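Supplementary Methods, section 5.1.

A reviewer requested that the exact input to the structure prediction be made available. We therefore reproduce it here, unchanged from the version used in the analyses.
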Amino acid sequence: MACAQIRLKLLPSIHTFFNKLVRVKVEGVAPHKSVELRSKVVDDRGMVFKASAFYRADENGSVDVCSAPSLSGSYTGVEPMGLFWSLAPEIQHNKFTKKNVLSPTLVEIQAVNGETGEVLVSETNERRYMMEGMKRIPVQEGRIRGVLFIPPGKGPFPGIMDLYTFGGGLSEPRASLLANEGYVVLALAYYGYQDLPKKPKMLDLEYFEEAVKYLRDHPEVKGPGIGLISISYSGGLAMAMSSFLPGITATVCINGCIGNTVLPLRYKDIVIPPLPPDTANVTFTDSGLVDIRDALPDPSSEESKASIFPIERASCRFLFAASEDDHNWNSVTSAKHAAAVLRDHGNQAFDVVTYPKAGHFLEVPHMPFCPSGFHAAVGTNVVFGGEPKAHCEAQLDLWEKVQEFFRTYLGKTEL
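The structure derived from this sequence is encoded token-by-token as follows.
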């Protein structure tokens, strides 16, 4: 059959938001023939990520990834978004990076003859981050540095501050996709960005207090309080902010630590030291990767006492999300300890959700899985844990839970 008759369809359109489903469908190949589907994306650092899967065309010469199983390749079985979440870096231990969201992420999809390797047809999926009319405003207000996303339509909107991982700089994808749901979202940098310190010796909680005030006072933000969403290191920052700062209504902590880590954290005359890591508990995987999962002491131990955030002081609602196979640290222990502290103080304003076989970086839906990578605090590559399929499913579930959480406790403006 001539290649000109073969069609590759990306439905509902070649233009989609990053977190939305894309239906990949091939039509016009010979019935029951082997078809390989390949995907490829280049991130903002020039890193190449690829995935592939082999399918068998049906009696009509079609392959629909929403109903047909992959027989082998990067994943198997019926996986509608397998070509996206299973994208793996050509150079190991690299995490997919998208910094500025003004441009879409371009994912090239190819249909290939499974027997000869001939490329039959290709198409590019433009995965956008910002809806039409969204404002993206760089923020340089006092000490505050970041990017503010304001949705189109008549405000004011509920406000959310997005805090990302240890490592410096700024990450915009989650903030922009949240803003599409009807929120004003501030993606806040806290070091290694513009004129912020590159290698701080201490973090100042009053900087984050300034950011809370800035967001609450913004004319497009309706109060009285704001939401926080955090992941990894910033999960601890979000707990500290919720403990000490007024004006926070709803806090999401994704794979965070109940104790302060890496850098001392100061608020006025209070200094919270980092948990003392025990290098004797650092292990290595069979492939030689560093595993730091058990490097921090138990949060209930005496040696941890001075570093544990006083979340019993918090007046917000919490959503703690924890991956059971997180190898950055024991997120489940932290989440359960936080819940116990709140419960012991008569506070039931929290939810805990855990995900078996998910790893550390629970990101927005369909983000390529990152099992290992460079750790800024450790200074080398570490294992982050998780299994690709389970991790993908956890990201989908958590995104829905986050939407429901903020809708319930912050409200939402329909766009």
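The chain has two domains: 7-128, 135-410. These observations are discussed further in the main text.
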